[in-house]
Amino acid sequence: MEETYRDRTSLVKGAKDIAKEVKRQAVKKVNKAVDKAQDGYTQRSYNRFQDEEDDDDYYVQGGNYGVEANDDEGSSEATEGHDEDDEIYEGEYQGIPNMGQGKDGMVALGQPMRDEYKDRHELETERKADEEELAQQYELIIQECGHGRFQWALFFVLGMALMADGVEVFVVGFVLPSAETDMCIPNSGSGWLGSIVYLGMMVGAFFWGGLADKVGRRQSLLICMSVNGFFAFLSSFVQGYGFFLFCRLFSGFGIGGAVPTVFSYFSEVLAREKRGEHLSWLCMFWMIGGIYASAMAWAIIPHYGWSFSMGSAYQFHSWRVFVIVCALPCVSSVVALTFMPESPRFLLEVGKHDEAWMILKQIHDTNMRARGQPEKVFTVNRIKTPKQIDELIEIESDTGTWYRRCFVRIRTELYGIWLTFMRCFNYPVKDNTIKLTAVWFTLSFGYYGLSVWFPDVIKHLQSDEYASRVKYFRNEEVSNFVFNFTLENQIHSNGEYINDRFIMMKFKSVTFEDSLFKNCVFDDITSLNTYFRNCTFVNTTFYNTDLEQYKFVDSEFINCTFFHIRTGCQISFDDDYSAYWIYFVNFLGTLAVLPGNIVSALLMDRIGRLTMLGGSMVLSGISCFFLWFGTSESMMIGMLCLYNGLTISAWNSLDVITVELYPTDRRATGFGFLNALCKAAAVLGNLIFGSLVGITKAIPILLASTVLVCGGLVGLRLPDTRTQVLM
Predict the structure, then answer these.
(1) What is the C-alpha separation between 610 and 605, in angstroms, rounded?
(2) Terminal CA-CA length for the chain
(3) pLDDT by residue (tens digit) across 470-512?
(4) Cα 197 from Cα 520, distance rounded (Å)
(5) Closest among 563, 658, 649 to 606, alpha carbons compared
(6) Please, which residues have CB within 8 angstroms of residue 396's CB and are 6 or more apart in sequence?
(7) pTM to 2 decimals?
(8) How far apart are CA 218 and CA 337, in angstroms?
(9) What angle do CA 274, 283, 601 make, to 5 degrees?
């Protein structure tokens, strides 16, 4: 026999015969194991498998992964698992075959030869069957691992990343007034700061989501959160507006990958009956991020004692301290993620059986020790891994330059992400992707549009009320008087001020019209929204003031002198009457989602995702009509809280549905695409709704109601995923 196998023709023939026999035996064992697993899955009873005679086979979805029980009680442990039926395990590392391996070498040699003659369609069909088999088996494995300490530890780690995403959304709105003043940003460029962050988040969501399906959830999340933390920290020190925009752009680009990666990561370590509830609890960290940002802004930004300067070239004001503090959740999540393992479901998808098995054993042992059952053994021996289809990509030879090879590698990775994205529009997920696109866009457009419209309307009401309390002074004559107090919300017209001194005082929203200042002194003056229109200054001295040329409109100066004029922009947040009110409104609006978060978490697995999604969006659309009665600040704040409380259930259920509708190899990519679409809809909603502030209520109300109700009706047409395993 040994001489015969040295002949290549006989070797190949023998390998084929053995492969056929292995395949026949594998089919018989697949049918037996699948029937057994499906029966257990239907009864939703996992424990009954432990009492069966051959415990090691109840996980097995394919005979080539099972470990048969040894019928011979006297056999040694050294030969266990090496009987004839279990020579090869598909997906198991067998080592490099050699000519002296005997039958093992022949089987290993025969397997690649069979795949060489299969076209891609056949390979993809086999892979799809393997994935369906793995989905059922993986659900049973996660049920054996239980829900305990490991899931809760990962819950808080990923929660910090989601909290960082919530902080990023709020931080720009809070620092925008101070940053615009500190960096002398003109009105024409002020809108870029808010839009640039959403642009970065939009691109980042798509890129990092796609990368998470190629390199892993943990790896992608670590990189994107590190990018966010680095550029967020750097943005607090830069002085130029252009560089600041650059840093916030890349900060948004980094944090854009948090939402799709976090939900994909966490869903893959949860059993079916726990998934909806605990993903909803995870959403609460986004609310905590908003509360954290509001509290820190209120506590830090108005305190100018925390500021310092290095000449006129470098200014470090309190809003920069706020930006640093807001980066702490991101830094915390990066540190904690280094101690967490990769998603075992992802590792199985890419064929890394041993690594996935070790992580699943770690999950099992961690939870069992926490339950006080350290003696309980992880009984899984083999897990099904889908057939791996190699992608043949032409790459530059080693003789090329290093940067050329890097460019080709990056281009290859981006092309791979694009191919994965295009597969989201293939059967059977094409219809789901189209419906999810409609729901994500309508919910984002309505939610973010009204979220911007509410505070702007409140500020508009405040401005109207403030303007209604303005004091008018006409034809006044003041001479030889010392002004050393604050003038606020006043209009002085046709006045004469002779030999007066304005010393160490503040002008806030003060206007002088057609007035005469003769032999006066302005010393140490700080002004906000203060203008001198068509005024005449004679023999007047200005010393250490911020009264720049643009504050004098059509005014005339006769023999006047200016000393130490403070040019540039001056921080004036103490003088902003709505500063604390803006923080308080955002704090209440964010806190209002707490009841909705609790309700959605408790009812997600009881009433179903679709009922909660459609019902929440329809109710949110109906609640918009109550805005007709919002004629005061308190009523508008109440409407804002009601609206946020109703929409949060829709967001939570939409997150759960999205991760459950996509298979593992496209889950993060599909979620990332939809999250990028969400940011695009948010920018569009901000532009449209923001332009209607103070003009009309009818269009925002009707527009928001229409898109929310239509999106809710489309959401009801999605398939129900409550009873499905994670594909």
Answers:
(1) 11
(2) 47
(3) 899 998 888 999 898 888 889 999 999 999 999 988 888 899 9
(4) 48
(5) 649
(6) 404, 405, 408
(7) 0.72
(8) 7
(9) 45
